[in-house]
Write a structure and sequence with these properties.
The chain is an alpha/beta fold. It has helices spanning 23-35, 100-103, 142-157, 174-182, 199-203, 212-220, 225-233, 237-240, 261-270, 284-301, and strands at residues 4-5, 42-45, 54-63, 67-76, 82-87, 107-112, 163-172, 188-191, 247-252, 275-279. Helix 3 (142-157) packs across helix 4 (174-182).
Length: 304
């Protein structure tokens, strides 16, 4: 069995961020803006990516802006509806095709947010650089759009007959946590180390990418530290977590990592729903198997 433990003890780690008074209103306005744009899906088969057990599609959707985003969408052959895995945008330039093994049994959606390749017109993100794009104000910060893009992909799924809407899992870091909060219909969340969690305090103790981008920014604009901290508070997973009632697996890093068990505890305790924490071993295969077992146990138990 996977060594998963609920966080119940107080942590020595104290977060430094304060919840904005208008946090709820800020995200209500963002979701209202998103709702004002039609989903407008365009689906085109990608025969080269198809298999004998699933069809692969390129999917385009309209998000706030308006901005057209690209996703990979895989649907198993045969009768549905199917449990569904959503791979939310990560901090990388490329949106990957859903894993071969997952496509055998599940509807799979890999979301390409604005700036990522295939979703890079008219905006092509820079890596490094994306983490501070528009960071001077929460209304212009790039993650407002990226989180909206993720929510838009879920909007699409909730209107699809091949999707078992009782069995949707979101996988990812910051964007997955935010989307699970803003889309309470999601049943499961598998979260990995978030970037934006207590980001200003954590970046001061590391030179790891991408948090080092914040350090670079503060070295260039030392007088903007308080202003940037104010922006990042609107995107901190700590304030989304109390809105999440879904069952959550939170992955933390081995001891000494910038999101190790001690640092993860305040976030783990903040989730409203049942939350297990898995401390990664550093052995990629073993960690993958632990997450895969958690995922399969939940989604397969929901199969009709």
């Amino acid at each position: 069995m996977v060594n998963q433990a609920s966080m119940t003890e107080e942590s020595a780690y104290m977060t430094s961020v304060s919840r904005p008074e208008d946090f709820d209103g800020f995200w209500h306005d963002a979701m209202s803006e998103l709702a004002g744009f039609p989903v407008a899906p365009e689906i085109e088969a990608i025969p080269l990516r198809g298999t004998d057990f699933a069809a692969m599609y390129g999917l385009s959707l309209t998000s706030i802006g308006p901005y057209r985003i690209f996703c990979y969408y895989s649907v198993p052959h045969g009768g549905g509806p199917f449990p569904t895995i959503v791979r939310c945008p990560e901090y990388s330039s490329v949106t990957l095709v859903p894993p071969y093994e997952e496509r055998r049994s599940f509807v799979c959606l890999s979301v390409g947010a604005r700036g990522q390749r295939l979703s890079d017109k008219p905006f092509a993100a820079a890596y490094p650089g994306l983490l501070t794009e528009g960071i001077e104000d929460p209304s212009t910060y790039i993650y407002r759009g990226i989180i909206a893009d993720t929510c838009r992909a879920i909007d699409f799924l909730l209107d699809r007959p091949e999707v078992d809407q009782r069995n949707i899992v979101l996988m990812g870091s910051d964007t997955a946590i935010a989307a699970a909060a803003l889309h309470p219909s999601v049943l499961y969340l598998m979260a990995t180390a978030p970037i934006l969690y207590d980001a200003v305090a954590r970046c001061a103790g590391t030179d790891e990418y991408p948090l080092e981008e914040l350090n670079d920014y503060f070295r260039t604009y030392p007088d903007r530290a308080d202003r940037i901290a104010g922006t990042l508070a609107y995107f901190d997973p700590l304030f989304f977590a109390p809105m999440i009632g879904s069952e959550t697996l939170l992955n933390c890093q081995p001891d000494g990592g910038i999101f190790d068990r001690e640092r993860a505890e305040p976030l783990a305790r903040a989730f409203a729903g049942p939350t297990n924490v898995f401390q990664q071993t550093g052995y990629s295969l073993r960690d993958f198997q632990a997450n895969e077992n958690w995922l399969q146990e939940r989604l397969r138990s929901g199969r009709r």
